[in-house]
Amino acid sequence: MSALAWSWPGALLGAALGVGILLVYRGLPMRRRPDLMTRVEPYIRDSPRPSRLLASGQADLGVHHLLAPLLHRLGAAVDSTLGGAVSVRRRLERAGQPTDVEGFRAQQALWGVLAGLAAAVIGSLRWMSDGASLVSALALVVVSVMGGIVARDQALTRAARRREERILAEFPSVAEMLALAVTAGEGAAAALDRVARLSSGELSGELGRCLADARAGATLPEALQGLADRTGIASLARFVDGIVVAVERGTPLADVMRAQAQDARDASKQLLIEEGGKREIAMMIPVVFLVLPVTILFAVYPGLNELRLSL
């Protein structure tokens, strides 16, 4: 192999090492100088700090502070290319993650960069060993970058779907507890507070957030409607609509809660029946493609063998 073929990987590795050393040097504490706005802002800010009770945990989808500026620029490029910020924000809400579209795009850029680096290493090794073409290596890097970006998007979709499944699994029990609390004489807000304190899970966390919105100034129907909008589950939205109508029109809340709990149980049974049907169809695949061919082979092969011997 010529010296030129060995010089390209060495040059790439040397450039990567130099860029890494430069990034580490720029990220040292002695190099991070606060600008004028950072120094003056604490003295001129007139808005009070929000209460810690209203904080919802992590405020954004953070990335490493050393690479954050570069990743946010790459994320902005990904967002301008792909678009769909409304869909991303919606899926972040459904997944229970902070609605930080910029941070999510930065994570997509990070996944793409990591996939591209892995593809570059594999392409370099193939080029040195087998003499593969440079065009195929570059194509592999481009495809890997796109695959990493799409994989992060698909991971968000799967996280939202899994969270919805957990909420649906918790929903009948929470509806029963709410119906029992209201039947015992508690109001809607008190029943929600009791269930949120005594239970755990995704739905109880959403109930706690709903109560936090109500205590922050929103009315209880508005807070409940926000819960239904965040989750996007049809059965939970119907449950919330029943409670909102009962609260606004003065309908006896206990009867409404019991009816809604019964609907939640029926919906859970329907989901179990549908899941059982899907599993039954999935069980047919090994039977049809594995067991049945082997059975036919065992039934037909002796006859074919006898015919061949007779001939």
UniProtKB/TrEMBL annotation:
The membrane topology noted for this protein in its Swiss-Prot or TrEMBL record is: Multi-pass membrane protein
Span-the-membrane segments of this chain are 6-25, 109-128, 134-151, 281-301
User: Which keywords fit this entry according to its UniProt record?
Assistant: Cell membrane, Membrane, Transmembrane, Transmembrane helix
Source organism, top-level taxon: Bacteria
The record's Gene Ontology cellular component field reads: plasma membrane
Q: Which InterPro entries match?
A: T2SS_GspF_dom
User: Which residues belong to any copy of the Type II secretion system protein GspF domain?
Assistant: 176-299
Recorded protein name is: Pilus assembly protein TadB
